[in-house]
Amino acid sequence: MKTAIRNGARHDDFTPWKYWYVEPGGPLQFTKPVILLTHRFSVSAAENFTLAMRVLPHVTVVGDATSGVFADVYGDRMPNGWSFRVSFKLFIDPSGFCWEGIGVPADIRETNTKQDIEQQRDKVLDLAVSLIESGGLRPQDESLSLRDIRESLAKNLARDISEKGLEAALKAYRKAKAGPPAAYYFDLEELTEAGDRLWKAGKKTEAIEAFKIGVAESPWSSAAHETLADAYFNLGDATQAASMYKKASELNRRSYPWEIGSYDDAVRLSKGTRLLAKNLARDVDDKGIEAALKAFDQGKAGDPTSYYIDEDKINQLGYQMLNRGKTADAIEVFKLNVREFPKSSNVYDSLGEAYLKAGNNELAVQNYKRASELDPTNRNAIDIVKRLSGGEAAVDTKVFADYKGRYDSPMGIIIVTLDEGKLFAQPEGNSKEELIAKSTTKFQVTSVGAEVEFIRDDQGKVAKMLIRISGQQMDAKRIQ
Question: Which of 59, 151, 351, 443 could form a disulfide with 435 if both were Cys (CB 3.0 to 4.6 A apart)?
Answer without folding.
Answer: 443
